[in-house]
Amino acid sequence: MTNAVSDVDLLSWDFAQDPHSRYARMRNDGVVRKHVVKTLATALNAWVVTDYEQARELLADPRLSKETEKLLDAMDANKVNAGDTITRTPPSMLFSDPPDHTRLRRLLGNAFTMRRVEKLRPWIEELTDDLLGKIPDGEEVDLVHTLALALPIFVIGKLLGVPQDRHEDFRTWNGALASLDTSAEEKQVAHKAAFDYLRQLIEDKRAAPDDDMISALIEAQVDGGKLSEPELLSTIYLMMNAGYETTAHMISSGVLALLENPDQQALLRKDSTLLPGAIEEFLRFESPLNMSTIRYTASPVEVGGVTIPANEIVFISLLSANRDAAKFTDPDTLDVTRPNRGHLSFGYGIHHCVGAPLARMEGEIVFGKLLDRFGRWELTVPARELEWKYSAQFRGLDRLPVRMSAE
Length: 407
Fold this sequence. Notes:
Blueprint: H1 13-17, H2 19-29, E1 33-39, E2 42-49, H3 52-59, E3 64-65, H4 68-78, H5 100-111, H6 114-119, H7 121-133, E4 140-142, H8 143-148, H9 150-160, H10 167-178, H11 184-207, H12 213-219, H13 229-260, H14 262-270, H15 275-285, E5 295-297, E6 301-303, E7 306-308, E8 313-316, H16 318-321, H17 356-373, E9 376-379, E10 401-405
Parallel strand pairs: 2-8
Antiparallel strand pairs: 1-2, 3-5, 4-10, 5-8, 6-7, 9-10
Helix pairs in contact: 7-17, 9-13, 10-11, 11-13, 13-15, 13-17, 15-17
């Protein structure tokens, strides 16, 4: 007899549309099991962790490694289709362990400072006002494309120094890389195009530095050392892509959550001091990342009575952990006054998202201005007709057709 939990298809369209009920079954089963998971275009046999406490512990466990070369070997050993080619990328902070990770994070931290983030606040406020001003009062608009995607890509583009006329290219490339619908060949084309462009942009910044992150990263030093060319390239690529997609999904999912929970929307309108906590609740309620980035077991790891051998692939579901009733009271209920804000949407441990302060700032600005400007929000289609991205990596809406009006 087949096991209903082990048969959950994490790559199906149905799963992408309703992951929560399936993750609840996996958590209730109480046993960590193997599933087929995709990273880029490669299907892997991987252990999937869904429990909050296990997830939090493993995110900080050094036995779960991200060292690039050994990770690629583990991926090769655990791929579903023997003929698949594993895509190789330059070394980066995201795929490294200490001491390399420590060095790379310090170099990034020297350029990506809170001062640099805070300097963007007036510009982000002005940009948000401009984007909201283009939303016609009382007429239908797709909030994903007009606001949720538009704002973060403008922000990360300005922060890094990527010209505005190339922002759409990154949306296209990242869309191809994140989708379960695109082929391995299409992903490779998108990956190459993005890296080729960034190589040229880095050369342009070397020739004419500006007050932006790419120029700062070129010059950043720790103990006399700088980022190597491959490290510089992969760091900028990571920031450009991770720096907008997750924030975009936080905005659109948060708007949908308030549309479906008008009592919570009313609380925020009545008391704006609840807004910072509301951003944390949006992040918990619908984590913009479904899974943490890929890891492998450098040595055997016991998880809930199951021993995962060495050289196995492990994925940690942030989306599932954030709905674990053992951690959060009434986890499927949106509560902007929730006192427990220990969500894992930004990860945990040494790989905690370095861009978290910027994402929080954008969220507070956007939702504050949306609530001030538009007194009435309504979906123009039934919520059940909304479609979520067909992605193993991200949790976000494809479209969010709404009508917003001042009264």
